[in-house]
Amino acid sequence: QVHLVESGGGLVQPGGSLRLSCSASGSIASINVMGWYRQAPGKQRELVARITSGGSTNYADSAKGRFTISGDNAKKTVYLQMNGLKPEDTAAYYCNMEGTDLRRTIYYIASRNFNSWGQGTQVTVSS
């Protein structure tokens, strides 16, 4: 199984910065997409930023110009640099990765697709 662990969240004043990280563990053969989502109380989970193995990125309109996503496939890690934080950025941030992992049986090793989520890290922007 692919397990994701996020870190870097915390309490910050408006205009401050935070850097989130997420590392994966497990029998991973390849990672195709890495992304960050967030969910505020009473609201739907939304995509913040996403990056493919080829380096293509996508950002939510609210994140453009302030947030930067980067990934290191070799380290199986994705980062989210958040600058100019606003109170409306307050939410639980979740890491997501899609790719292929390995399944071992007593006979052979097979590949399968995975879509894993982290446990979430809280970001609170308040003065």
List the helices and strands and how they pair.
Layout: E1 3-7, E2 10-12, E3 18-25, E4 28-39, E5 46-52, E6 57-59, E7 67-72, E8 77-82, E9 91-104, E10 109-117, E11 121-125
Parallel strand pairs: 2-11
Antiparallel strand pairs: 1-3, 3-8, 4-5, 4-9, 5-6, 7-8, 9-10, 9-11
- DSSP summary: helix tally: 0
Average pLDDT value?
96
**Beta-strand percent range:** over 45%
What's the main sheet like?
7 strands, mixed
| N-C termini distance | 40 Å
* Envelope shape: elongated
User: What order do the helices and strands follow?
Assistant: EEEEEEEEEEE
Number of strands: 11
Description:
This protein has 127 residues and is mainly β. Helix content is 0%, strand content 61%. It has no helices and 11 strands. Strands 2, 4, 5, 6, 9, 10 and 11 form a 7-stranded mixed β-sheet that branches. It has a 4-stranded antiparallel β-sheet with strand order 1-3-8-7, with no helix packed on it. A hairpin with a 4-residue loop joins β5 (46-52) and β6 (57-59). The model has no long low-confidence stretch (mean pLDDT 96).
Outline of this structure?
The protein is mainly beta.
